Amino acid sequence: MATGKTVIETIFTITKWNQLKITIMKKLLTIIIILFAFASCNNYYKAVTANQPVPTSIVETMKMKDKYFILRDDLKAFAMKNILITEDKKNIQCTLETLPAMHKLHLTNGRDGDMKYRTTKITDDDETLVLNEVHVYIIPGNNSDTGSFTISIANIEKIEILEKDKQKTKRSHAVGTAVAIGVSVIAVAGIAAAAFSSPFIIF
Fold first, then answer.
1. In angstroms, rounded to a whole number, what is the distance separating the alpha carbons of residues 49 and 95?
2. Pairwise pLDDT comparison (63 vs 16), residue with the higher score
């Protein structure tokens, strides 16, 4: 027959085990809440199209703001360097360079093709750089390639200035916060139910 000491030891062991289970549940649920919040909170950008016909003043203004220019020629894309506008305002002269990977996000319209970007930096992949880009689209067939290149203003189809979509980002974060709160309520209820289901748990 079990002695009083054995019963106490058994109760103590069960209590410690239940406390360990509750601790593990709390940590797991915390991780789940964080994952839900990150998955629901997205950052968006938008492309503002310059008025047509494209005035050279836009290029000059964006240059002054130290924007990163990207030439889009059908499926090809290049970094535009050493940009100069001719005196007659009819051409843009520049040097085309290979486009770095960190500036290729908008080539596929952002993450998941949904104009989304990530604010956390992973290795050298800084997706916030997309907010400083200007994309110059020209009529296909101009034989664009790395090196010196001249763009006729008449051949520019459009110019996109990329910037943060504050309204859409704010809505996304609001949804993410609501999801996190909902999951938190469920988590607390689950932990409480687990606690009250065992008569040996001591807090």
1. 23
2. 63
